[in-house]
Amino acid sequence: MSLQTELTGNADVVRLSASVLDRRERDCHAFAAAKAYPAMRPVARERRRYAPWATFPMGLVMSALDAVEFGGADPDIAVGRAVEESRDPVHPGVTRWVLHACHTYLETSESLAAELAAGGVELRPERRPRVVQSGPPGGSPVAMRALTAWGRWYGSPDGSLVEFRRMRVRRPLGLPDDPSVLAMAFVAAAGRQVIDPRDLYQAVPIPVEDGPRPARVRVVEMGLTDADARVLVDASPEEVRQAYRSSVQPVAERLLTDDRRAPGSDCAECRLCASCEALARVPGLLGLAGPGTHRRTWSVTTARQYQLCPAQAHLRDLRLPAEEAEGSAVRRGLLVHRWLEIAHGRAAAPGAQEVRPCTSDDLPDPATGALGLAEGLMSFEEYEQAWPYLVRHVEVCPLRGPGEITGVVPEPRIAVHDTEADVVVVAHPDLLRRVGGRLVYREQKTSLTERGITEENALELVPQLALAVSLIAGGAFGGTRGTVELEQLTPLSGTVVSFDAGDPGVAARARAVLAELAGAWHREVDFPTEPGPWCRFCPVSRWCGDAFRAEDGPFITVDGLVIDPVTGEVLESEGRTTSRVEAVGDALAGPDDDPPPF
């Protein structure tokens, strides 16, 4: 199917947000294209269910800043009022971040004002956003093409300078030549002020009024967690128009008809979810009875975060700023995964004539000063850290055979809709391949010491394996037979535990593990805190008023196992581990595969 067959209605109304123009190659372009046609509706209609909690913290920041800048309110009072007046309940952790974000923005705004004042320029906040819109000859009331920019607007009293400020959850990320940045500058240069801000996303066409044309346009990115501002555009309107027409307009035109599909976390919000043939459907994948509060995205990382603390899972789901993990175990795991992705990717490269297993030739001894395949991928110090584990990988490399190996795909993203639970399940296998035509799904873990993970307990201790078994058995890859492997690497050993996904007993065990992990999360609406030793690892404890801080010694103990909170290593495992100890590591190192557009 295609956009033309999956949507019906008026295709002459287009409303495009500048922020969607930075879609990465691996993103779902059809998701963004479908959003750009607000007067069309899906042919496969569904009743939209919404989360029973506030899901957009940035909207609360905007409301509070409006009260401060246009009503003179105290920032603390403004945040409290925004939270009180929110249509949906706001988690206490969100409130703490919103308060921090507002103070950070206002402090940074004062610095910007001082810099402009030194050049004789005064800026005032503008309540009404700007929009660029056009229609066909004759001004049809049912046709419109509009380009919008979500953020905060400022202008000089005489209208000669217009400044748009894009807010970023943590810190400025954009570059001056990003399509989204140039599109925002174009809206500032050529846009007209909306008469009633409520019409921006409802009226066709949008009522606007003419005003003085600016002689200077600025686009500034504002960090809301780290106090930082970056001026990305400071140019004349003509310079902005030229840049937009030459490098952005073609991107925008392609996006409106781009039908490339890449299932992932976007699927939960996508208008095409019910009809998209690229999204696999496995009813009952998670073993849950009926839908939860609304359509949501779930992964093993979500489960691990929730297992330790429901509040952590909620704040991570809302993309609140997280402290970046710096422990040596985390860094080592990422380095090993990056090296393996490159090494195994040789077999998946276009034009590759043969499968190339990893060999010792790829891994020169660090004592020689050479980096081999790691050249350009990591520093020499990082290579020294990863090398002992990678040497052990050579012994169990999945591309060694036996059997004919085809279809090698390192680090793919898998998304499946469990239609019974109404949950989009996302997985990130370390490697997919076929051996003699049979699908083999491999996960990989590194640890300083043996953790005692065996065939008897691996599905419970490493739930990525249970998910892999259930995906295969449920037909997510076409057939219902395949093998799931766990590769375990320590500096002294490399071992592989495997499971037959076609075995009914194995499949039943796997489904039980997933139901246990996802069940409480699926019903949760409050997301309470669960303080404990893991708070010292928690990436969002900064926004938690209940974070456990009593244990300040050099080590922490979880389920009787000693963990170094600096490195993340399990120091005394006695050849055993527990589900919660493994959850600490998974929650600490969980990937943020889909960064937000803000």
Provide a short characterization of the protein structure.
The protein is α+β, with helices and mostly antiparallel strands. The chain has 15 helices and 24 strands.
Describe this structure in words.
There is one protein chain. The strands form 6 sheets. The chain has a 5-stranded mixed sheet with strand order 2-6-5-9-10, with helices on one face. A 5-stranded mixed sheet has the order 4-7-8-11-12, with helices on both faces. It starts with a helix and ends in a 9-residue tail after the last helix. A hairpin with a 5-residue loop joins strand 7 and strand 8. The protein is α+β, with helices and mostly antiparallel strands and 598 residues long. Helix 3 packs across helix 5 (92-118), helix 6 crosses helix 7 (237-257) and helix 10 packs across helix 11. It is globular and about 75 Å long. It has helices at residues 3-6, 29-35, 57-71, 75-84, 92-118, 179-190, 237-257, 300-308, 310-317, 328-348, 380-395, 458-461, 463-473, 504-523, 579-589, and strands spanning 7-9, 13-17, 40-42, 124-126, 130-134, 144-148, 152-155, 161-168, 192-194, 208-209, 216-223, 229-235, 280-281, 296-298, 405-410, 414-418, 423-427, 431-435, 438-446, 482-489, 494-500, 556-558, 561-563, 570-572. This is PD-(D/E)XK nuclease family protein. Keywords: ATP-binding, DNA damage, DNA repair, Helicase, Hydrolase, Nucleotide-binding. Residues 297-544 form the PD-(D/E)XK endonuclease-like domain.
